[in-house]
UniProtKB/TrEMBL annotation:
Keywords: DNA condensation, DNA-binding. It comes from Marinobacter salinexigens. SMART domains: BHL. GO terms for biological process: chromosome condensation. Histone-like DNA-binding protein which is capable of wrapping DNA to stabilize it, and thus to prevent its denaturation under extreme environmental conditions. InterPro entries: Hist_DNA-bd, Histone-like_DNA-bd_CS, IHF-like_DNA-bd_dom_sf. One of its GO terms (cellular component) is cytosol. The lineage of its organism: Bacteria, Pseudomonadati, Pseudomonadota, Gammaproteobacteria, Pseudomonadales. CDD domains: HU (cd13831). This is HU family DNA-binding protein. Gene3D superfamilies: IHF-like DNA-binding proteins. Belongs to the bacterial histone-like protein family. Pfam families: Bac_DNA_binding.
Amino acid sequence: MRKPELAAAIADQTGMTREKASEVITAFTDQISAAASRGEDVTLIGFGTFNIRKREARNGRNPQTGATIQIPASSTVGFKPGKALKDQIG
């Protein structure tokens, strides 16, 4: 499901216009992005938690040449589903 499809489903369920539902989705994702940039976790009870995960620097291999390369440390956003979401999926 892409954003326009999600906005349409939310609009149908809530009675909002599709444009307003799209604005709500944009505001939601903006707030999660802002919290992640501050290093904060975002927990939606029953749905899941968005958190920052640190990756250590490590050695890797260039698949074309087989040469060893240094992969720098980085941060990424992870998602851990909540119990209700896990139970719904099966």
